[in-house]
Amino acid sequence: MKIRHIFHALACMMLALALTGCEGEKDLNIIEGELPIKTNSLYMVGDATPNGWDIGNPTPLSASTDDALIFTWEGPLYKGEMKLCLTTGSWDAPFIRPIVNGTEITKTAISNTKFAMHAGDPDDKWRIADAGKYKLTFDLRHWTMSTEYLGELDAPVIEPIEAETLFIVGDATPNGWNIDAPTQLAKMSQYVFQYEGNLLAGELKACLSTGDWGVSFIRPTFGGCKISKNGVESADFVFTTNPDDKWKVEDAGQYRLTFDLEHWTIRAEYLGEIPSSDKEPIEAEAVYIVGDATPNGWSIDEPTLLTKVSKYVFRYEGTLVAGELKACLSTGDWGVPFIRPTFGGCKISKNGVENTDFVFTTNPDDKWQVVEAGEYRLTFDLEHWTISAEALGGGTTGKDPLEANVVYIVGDATPNGWSIDSPTQLTKESQYVYVYEGTLTQGELKACLQTGSWDVPFIRPIFANCRIDGNGVENPDFVFTANPDDKWKVEEAGDYRLTFDLEHWTLNAKKIK
Q1: Which H or E run contains 14?
Q2: 4 phi/psi in degrees, rounded to 5
Q3: Distance CA 304, CA 141 (A)
Q4: Is 438 within 8 Å of 495 (Cβ atoms)?
Q5: How far apart are CA 444 and CA 466, in angstroms?
Q6: 252 versus 63: which is more confidently predicted?
Q7: Quick one: pLDDT at residue 276?
Q8: Partners of 62 in the beta sheet?
Q9: Which residues face 237 on adjacent strands?
Q10: What are phi and psi of 14, to 5 degrees?
Q11: What's the average model confidence in pLDDT over 168-174?
């Protein structure tokens, strides 16, 4: 009798365990939403953070004593960008990122805003718009973040900087970004160093030694501090590794820069225009253009050859897409001097070229910026060191229709994201008209005629970040090219009707709701 009772009790226990197990399985099956991100550590990395972009030593956050999945940071943040990681030493690991790239962290508090986490592209980051002391809170249980502005940054402790040498480096300086041989200043006294000479439009910072980007640099107190004919925008400087702030020379010319390492100040005096020395004509048998604005892209082995019009005049007539270009006299070598604009980003548009003068130099690596795609005539005069640019057409007329059996859109604005193996297919309405009707989120997109490869031509806007929003598309024309990698930018999430006309090379966008 007792044995029967024992067996009965065991059977009841086993039944209870089985029911508990089934109940456990049922609980697992109804889990919804994001799972908590379980980690013992959390770091932030970026030029806005104290340790900069050093993935081997990013800035750690502290876990809450009340909840191990809530991490906080209290301390300085600088103007710049940041994202977060769970481990150190790898850029290939997943990062915690904002939902929308460039989401600003400012003096205005953010409360329980959702974040995302993924590896690879798109490389979304937060942007610190107001430098200062902050409290950041990341809740890894609910995938939310909050910010609180605590006040201005502490003024740096100023002690005289002991140095035997001082150098300036940057594309505004004679030696460009060459950290092995930056431009040396003259030592005027124990703490005063001076540079007198040419500065081009561009950036610069100062260092005490050569050969190492990882050391502390003398920098402005904020990024983009202007040096111009009126002097320097702010006389104070800092001595730090991060953030990577630099002075910005607005007006090319002859300058006297004076660095006072005792009082941490800089003075800039404009001395006049860069003298137009008697330049000898450049002797050349051939001239080429290279860059993502040109037909052959960045191929230095096969750049685009110009037509020799006379002994010193060379001309290109054809298509330029939005992007960059420079010119060279030979192929196969990036180490030779190039024909470049007198300042980086000099614009070429349908109105011509922003500045007709050019230089012939190895650095700084300045390039012309084509801001409007189209048909152009570029003329290089090697005797007078000038360039002219003449727009010949819009760049979308006279093109044969694109022949395609299918058209897809791909990008973080589209339903299938950046999956090139399964991009979002459009509906074919006629021989050359393809339509997408559905949801687009904030983000980027481009179109392709096949799946499975990024190394093919894509349908792209005629300039980068061409907007799509409630007003439609910023410019209806498109190009079909492998580079530059320009994409449309969806500014407003919603339901849209996109119509690609492959005969007339246009895109129409209409927001439905």
Answers
A1: helix 2-29
A2: -60, -40
A3: 55
A4: yes
A5: 10
A6: 63
A7: 57
A8: 72
A9: 220
A10: -65, -40
A11: 89
As a whole number of angstroms, the distance between CA 468 and CA 483 comes to 21
Most confident of 340-344, 427-431, 444-448: 444-448
What strands lie across the sheet with 374-381, from one edge to the other? 307-308, 313-320, 374-381, 386-393
Quick one: tokens of 244? 């990577």
Phi, psi of 467 (to 5 degrees): -80, 140
Cβ-proximal residues to 498 (8 Å cutoff; 6+ apart), any chain: 409, 426, 435, 436, 437, 440, 468, 507, 508, 509
Count of alpha carbons within 13 Å of 471, Cβ hemisphere only?
Answer: 5
Amino acid 487: pLDDT: 93
Give the lowest-confidence range in 226-230, 308-312, 385-389.
Answer: 308-312
Beta strands 346-349 and 368-370, pairing class? parallel
Tokens, residue 353: 């070229």
Residue in 457, 437, 447, 456 with CA at minimum distance from that of residue 408: 447
C-alpha angle 137/138/139, rounded to 5°?
115
pLDDT digits (tens, 9 = 90+) for 300-353: 999 999 998 888 999 998 889 888 999 999 999 998 899 999 888 899 988 888
Burial grade of 478 (CB within 10 A; 0-12, 13-18, 19 or more): buried
Distances, alpha carbon 263 to alpha carbons 19, 234, 258, 410, 459, in Å:
77, 14, 12, 54, 56
261: alpha, beta or left? (left if phi > 0; alpha if psi -120 to 50): alpha
CB neighbourhood size of 152 (10 A): 12
Looking at per-residue pLDDT, the higher value among 400 and 151 belongs to 151
* Local confidence band at 256 (pLDDT 50, 70, 90 cut-offs): very high
What average pLDDT score do residues 430-447 get? Answer: 94
Give me 261's structure tokens: 């390492």
The DSSP bridge pattern shows strands 59-60 and 43-45 to be antiparallel
CA distances from 370 to 113, 201, 245, 327, 436 (A): 39, 18, 27, 14, 30
In the block, which residue shows the tokens 């009798």?
A: 1
Question: pLDDT band for position 409 (50/70/90)?
Answer: very high
Task: Give the pLDDT mean for 184-197.
Answer: 94
Q: Do 512 and 493 touch, CB atoms closer than 8 A?
A: no
- Given a cut of 90, whether residue 69 has pLDDT beyond it is yes
Nearest CA-CA partner of 311 in 285, 280, 290: 285
Q: Within 10 A of 392 (CB to CB), how many other CB atoms are there?
A: 13
Which residues lie across from 125 on neighbouring strands? none
Q: What count of Cα atoms within 13 Å lies in the side-chain half-sphere of residue 320? A: 30
The encoded tokens of residue 330 equal 């030979």
- Return the ∠ at Cα 265 (arms to 261 and 267), rounded to 5°: 115
Would you give the DSSP letter of residue 357? B
Ranges 94-98, 106-110, 248-252: which has the least confidence: 248-252
